[in-house]
């Protein structure tokens, strides 16, 4: 399998062929650079000479048939909101943007199953679903930009995973164009299916390395009739864990999100986004809890009982309940802009781990210690200005930010592979919800066994023998 | 790929080798016939000469290494409660029983993740989980017999799918021994993971054709603090569908099961199991709704409001709310014994389909008409005594029973492939939760596209090139 590819320059004949299919083609360097050859954080830069904008599955099939025959590599792009370089054409690949495949194909209002093309923007899709009495079971900070095909391809987790679970459960069917142009129609819309291998699962989280996801059938959740938030201020990390156990007991089926962040994260959002802190006082840790239910009166009572419980066990120093719609939006925005605030404060090395909750705070202490020892952090003027964590409690998903004066360099050298090794040896995964992208495949060995990695590679070889789909990324780097 | 196999007779040397591993071996014909060479309904008969009972993953690995080298085919067996012949050694394969691998390996009481060996009986596992404040998110009628490894391998759906969703979402990790004996350690216990292809998904529903699942990591649901049932009597099928929509709106997050059955099913349970009908009067259709929540007072109020709604729209003729624990057990037992009652009344041809709800009743009418036209049903003494449906509303999963004087014969000839074609052409799946087993692979083409079936077969070829795992079944028959 070719792991590193010098892609043949796209010829006039190639462009002529693509145009002849009726596909929009962009090959203006400036346009490419501004929108398609750079990632959301400005960290990864690509060198695609051409971006294609098919409007139908058949066009995607024609494009891949052509590229496969000629060994032209392809990078699929959705909203280009990824932070791991997975959608960037590092080696001059052709960019296949799904932006113009953005139709809702079907919506069953009885069963709550939506069939949408990959280019539908997540927020638009959720607005559409809400009008029919449902909500899309995945939500994340990039909702205004990311697209459902990309959500599937990166196995997006997000803010309400705790309630609605994984894409592997909620995606019922996929339409995929295989690398050789064949259309794999697996766009099943019924909930139970035990007829053969569940092939579509392979494309969930494949980051465009096995084919192009062109449409998604997804089981929606009923739109909640009632929602409320509580923001808590706490003194130490162990109290967050205890609060989570009490939330599951007292809020039970209505808890839909349980987020935490630490003091410095709060300060960065206040400083760089000019938002008000959601609490009056400053705390070591903050927790944001959301409930979604079908009866506000019941949910209010449950939340009050839960907060009583927290106070009874002296777990919290401050709490605020938010029930006003505008205030809820503002509070969520504060949480959603956290990564953005970090990236404004410097060059953000972002890490996205699954880690048993008992090791999460330990990770922060270990990273700070490691960087201090390396002489990179702890004193003014040093390369690292901040090391922070925030995350999704209950999903065991933690984001670690190391803010530096530049991308890469001594900071990356000190951090990697050290931090991946640390996470792997503490039972974690090197990628929880951001994916492997172009960079992290090499660290997969720290959290996955050799037989598992071999099996992944054999699947890649089976479905993409010419290695034209997103070459040199993901498990190809493992 | 060899689709039909004449298995070499197991030699004394083979038995000597297996015994030498410390594995229990049964090769007494009577014992084999009584327990391992016949399925739950007495429909499928096998011809295994030997059954092996490993107690460790390493033993399973040694057995498969040996069998793979010698081309000895293997059928994996759990509780042997399947109804599609998937666990039966039709061609004299070696039976690999996971019965003695029945330890709980780990339980995290904070995150609610359980790691159990495949031979754990589902009910035992749920009892264990309940003691820790959790419940296993899958439940089915065979709970006293079926084992968690078999539940995973058949992608079991069951009674509370509506609430807890699919195995593809709740199984976090698997340990699998590949056909060549390599151990695929994918026993991940954290909830989010976006690092490479989710290989374990392939084994969920593979019915032992790709390897042996030896252990399962599963995300449990919190044990409900409150539970209640409502049984409804209704006049026609469309009212069930409307009641379901109202249940999702009014009961929202607490509805955990929504089952229906028709009049004749009710009569059969009363007649053959000697249970009292759950309602005083006789009705065309019955619905059983379960709620599971964290506050009984709230849940009672929600259920009352919902029943008011049903009465307001004149959807129901009778209703009974059950809150007494013993009465709840009895009511559930009535539902659980439905298949058993059918099988006592004659030879049960059981069909398990996913079908859009709007076509479910239509199916019953079509089948009755078809069998009448064939002169097989409708008058006393004809080969078919009963045709019934019951199922899981909201999962689009319907069970069709055709009760005949014998298995196979003219009834099967009249029904197949006709009924599979009918289901496929109405947007359904030929297998919803029972699996393909030894018989249904040939009908897969009615609900899955050729490219999808080709891809499934290529996966089988990739992982089991010598075709030793459950040969001639599942997608190999497609």
Task: Write a structural description.
Two copies of one chain form a homodimer. By secondary structure, chain A is an alpha+beta fold. Chain A has four domains: 12-100 and 461-477, Uridine Diphospho-n-acetylenolpyruvylglucosamine Reductase, domain 2, CATH 3.30.43.10; 104-222, Uridine Diphospho-n-acetylenolpyruvylglucosamine Reductase, domain 3 (2-Layer Sandwich); 226-338, Alpha-Beta Plaits; 346-447, Alpha-Beta Plaits (2-Layer Sandwich). The first copy, chain A, contains 16 helices and 18 strands. The first copy, chain A, has helices spanning 12-20, 29-36, 57-70, 122-131, 148-153, 161-164, 167-170, 237-250, 263-273, 296-312, 325-336, 338-345, 360-373, 409-415, 418-425, 450-463; strands spanning 24-26, 51-53, 74-77, 94-97, 104-108, 113-117, 134-135, 171-177, 183-186, 212-219, 221-222, 226-234, 255-262, 285-293, 318-322, 347-354, 384-392, 397-404. In chain A, the strands form four sheets. A seven-stranded antiparallel beta sheet of chain A has the order 15-12-14-13-17-18-16, sandwiched between helices. Chain A has a five-stranded antiparallel beta sheet with strand order 5-6-10-8-9. In chain A, strands 1-2-4-3 form a four-stranded mixed beta sheet. In chain A, strand 17 and strand 18 (397-404) form a beta hairpin. In chain A, helix 8 (237-250) runs antiparallel to helix 10 and helix 9 (263-273) packs across helix 12 (338-345). The first copy, chain A, starts with 11 loop residues before the first helix and ends in a 15-residue tail after the last helix. The mean pLDDT of chain A is 95. The interface between A and B is large, with 98 and 98 residues. Chains A, B: Its EC number is 1.1.99.40.
């Amino acid at each position: 399998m070719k792991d590193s590819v010098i892609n043949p320059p796209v010829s006039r004949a190639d462009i002529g062929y693509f145009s002849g299919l009726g596909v929009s083609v962009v090959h203006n360097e400036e346009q490419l650079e501004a929108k398609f050859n750079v990632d959301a954080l400005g960290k990864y830069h690509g060198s695609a000479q051409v971006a294609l904008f098919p409007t139908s599955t058949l066009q995607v099939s024609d494009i891949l048939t052509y590229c496969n025959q000629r060994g032209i590599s392809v990078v699929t792009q959705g909203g280009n909101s990824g932070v791991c370089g997975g959608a960037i054409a590092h080696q001059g690949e052709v960019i296949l943007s799904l932006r113009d495949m953005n139709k809702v194909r079907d919506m069953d209002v009885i069963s709550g199953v939506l069939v949408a093309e990959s280019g539908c923007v997540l927020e638009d899709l959720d607005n559409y679903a809400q009008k029919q009495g449902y909500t899309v079971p995945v939500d994340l900070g990039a909702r205004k930009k990311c697209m459902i095909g990309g959500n599937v391809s990166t196995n997006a987790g997000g803010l309400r995973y705790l309630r609605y679970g994984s894409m592997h459960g909620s995606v019922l069917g996929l339409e995929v164009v295989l690398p050789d142009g064949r259309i794999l129609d697996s766009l099943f819309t019924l909930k139970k299916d035990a007829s053969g291998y569940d092939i579509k699962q392979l494309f969930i989280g494949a980051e465009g390395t096995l084919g192009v996801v062109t449409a998604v059938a997804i089981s929606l959740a009923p739109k909640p009739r009632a929602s409320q938030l509580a923001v808590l201020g706490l003194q130490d990390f162990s109290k967050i864990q205890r609060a989570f156990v009490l939330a599951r007991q007292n809020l039970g089926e209505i808890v839909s999100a349980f987020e935490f962040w630490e003091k410095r994260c709060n300060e960065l959002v206040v400083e760089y986004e000019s938002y008000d802190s959601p609490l009056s006082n400053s705390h070591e840790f903050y927790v944001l809890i959301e409930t979604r239910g079908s009866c506000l009166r019941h949910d209010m009572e449950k939340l009050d009982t839960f907060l009583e419980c927290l106070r009874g066990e002296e777990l919290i120093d401050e709490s605020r309940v938010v029930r006003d719609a505008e205030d809820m939006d503002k509070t969520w925005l504060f949480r959603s802009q956290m990564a953005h605030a970090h990236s404004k404060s410097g060059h953000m090395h972002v890490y996205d781990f699954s880690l048993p909750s008992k090791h999460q705070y330990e990770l922060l202490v270990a990273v700070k210690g490691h960087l201090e020892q390396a002489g990179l952090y702890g004193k003014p003027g040093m390369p690292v200005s901040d090391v922070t964590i925030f995350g999704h409690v209950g999903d065991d998903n933690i984001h670690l930010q190391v803010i530096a004066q530049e991308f890469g360099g001594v900071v990356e050298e000190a951090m990697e592979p050290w931090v991946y090794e640390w996470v792997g040896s503490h039972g974690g995964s090197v990628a929880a919800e951001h994916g492997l992208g172009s960079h992290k495949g090499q660290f997969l060995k720290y959290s996955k066994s050799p037989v598992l990695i071999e099996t992944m590679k054999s699947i890649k070889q089976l479905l993409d023998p010419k290695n034209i789909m997103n070459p040199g990324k993901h498990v190809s780097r493992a």
